[in-house]
Amino acid sequence: MKFKKWLSSGDPWVWINAGAVSISLLIVAGLLVLIAARGLGHFWPKDIYQIEYQIGSSTENIIGEIVSKNKISTEQFEESGLGIAPEGEEEVERWLIKTGNREMLSFDFRWINAHDVKSISTPDDLVVIERVEWGNFYGYIKSIATRDGRSFTDNPWDILIQHLDSLEDIKAEIHIIEKSEIGRINYQLESLRLKRKGLALDNLDTPESLAEITQKENALQEEFEVLQAKLFELYDEVAQDKVTMTIMDGREKTMTMDKIVSVLKPNEKTVFSKLILYFVNFYRFIVEEPREANTEGGVFPAIIGTVMMVMVMSIIVTPLGVIAAVYLREYAKQGAIIRLIRIAVNNLAGVPSIVYGVFGLGFFVYFLGGNIDKLFYQEALPAPTFGTPGLIWASLTLALLTLPVVIVSTEEGLARIPKSMREGSLALGATKAETIWRVVLPMSSPAIMTGLILAVARAAGEVAPLMLVGVVKLAPELPFDLNFPFMHLDRKFMHLGFHIYDVGFQSPNVEAARPLVYATAFLLVLVIVILNLTAIMLRNRLRERYRSLV
């Protein structure tokens, strides 16, 4: 009897629900810890080892980082043809070594058997060079050749650091000329070309109008030639400083310093200095552009693309969802048709996201964008302006995908507003529209923000529809710049979710890409959390403001 009474009291269901919530939280926390541990560990400056390795009757020197260690059974080891296992051992330990020097060794990583390692050391003068292309380089500095014709073999490390520091200002000037000044000139020349073509289509290409365009083009071309000459001079200057390195097999490699991103002697660093470098590496990962098929460098364009897409989507979906919910709750006559519409809205939330992507490609890109090009951008045809995947179409597609969430959440918020509040407003002489605008919507704003939070959480992590309506592997330009109209919503963009897919499944160098997958995934979760926390703080403020009125 006591047991039946305990069951009928509902306490078991409380404990079951509490246990389910606890398990769910533990799973989520474990997933985040796994992503953070494997992703953030990538930025720690690892020691470089020099390993004397026995191969048959000969020995080989290997230089690189120990990425991971694992053990396999002796039977599996010998059956795979990996060598002869030590006698009496049930398992064989193997090490994954990142050797770098891809252009000379044809591979970045290799497995070695721990029992074949004869000696291992961490010399302080071992250097790791991060390069613009071809990945990391590991070895010893042999000599430095400078632009003034001098060569240094004594204290080459100090000479290398000094020259790299002096090159930073030159490389920054090159970046400004390429991205800002020459980019601006190219944008203006393209605008003049389209203007010339537009005048021809409208039969307005008079000698006077063409002469004005030609004059502007000539002025821009002269400015471009001056900048190009200066750019060539800077390139020649930075390409004259060279460093010669010796790798593990004794071969030498000479590289120009303009291709070097950073240099490091990790073996001589203390824990505190490595900690500083750790945060520097993470900061660079956030603010730099990707390199080497997205397996090197940072994810700054992907962060910007993700945030901008979510913001544009939020600006579109919030008013549409609120207007639809207000009509369904406040104006529409409740009946079978409205119930059918609500069922349809709820069902839309369960439609696979790729279906929205196909719809967005067909309707927004080809139909709507194509007709916009015919009406307003004829001079650019056949090259599409809006008739191609871009940021605006991706945002509209995700707005449709998340619209049911905003509608349902807003309707629930409207339903919680007491009827007396509406009647009191109407009794004081306000119209129905004024009542909704000044009383009902402000009081239901926390529910609207809840819908927006759910929409942001859903949209920020979507990938499948974006592959059809705007996201690309590498976008040459950001969706905004200093050229009018500053925001270019027609451009393609990068996205953190697609970046994870591309690096994880399309990368030619799987081992190099694996830590970046975890790091980017952690960053995507962090971006979503920041966006949601911003919306939650705003919702809580609104809730406190209107709590006393309900």
Q: Could you name the CATH topology of the largest domain?
A: MetI-like fold
Outline: flat
Mean residue pLDDT: 86
Helix/strand order, N-terminal first:
HHEEHEHEEEEEHHEEEHEEHHHHHHHHH
The first-to-last residue Cα distance is 44 Å
Number of strands: 13
CATH H level of the largest domain: which superfamily? MetI-like
State the name of the first-level CATH class of the largest domain: Mainly Alpha
Instruction: Domain count, please report it.
Output: 3
Number of helices: 16
What is Rg? Answer: 31 Å
Helix content: 55-70%
Fraction in beta strands: 5-15%
Structural class: alpha+beta
Assembly status: single chain
CATH-defined architecture of the largest domain? Orthogonal Bundle
Low-confidence stretches: none
Question: How would you describe this structure to a colleague?
Answer:
By secondary structure, this protein is of the alpha+beta class. 59% of the residues lie in helices and 14% in strands. It is flat and about 95 Å long. The model has no long low-confidence stretch (mean pLDDT 86).
Topology:
Blueprint: H1 2-8, H2 11-40, E1 49-55, E2 58-73, H3 74-79, E3 91-98, H4 102-105, E4 109-113, E5 117-121, E6 127-131, E7 136-145, E8 151-152, H5 156-201, H6 207-238, E9 242-246, E10 252-256, E11 260-264, H7 271-287, E12 290-291, E13 296-297, H8 300-331, H9 336-348, H10 353-376, H11 391-415, H12 419-427, H13 432-460, H14 466-469, H15 496-505, H16 510-546
Antiparallel strand pairs: 1-2, 1-5, 2-3, 3-4, 6-7, 6-11, 7-8, 7-9, 9-10, 12-13
Helix pairs in contact: 2-16, 5-6, 8-11, 8-13, 9-11, 10-11, 11-13, 12-13, 13-16, 15-16
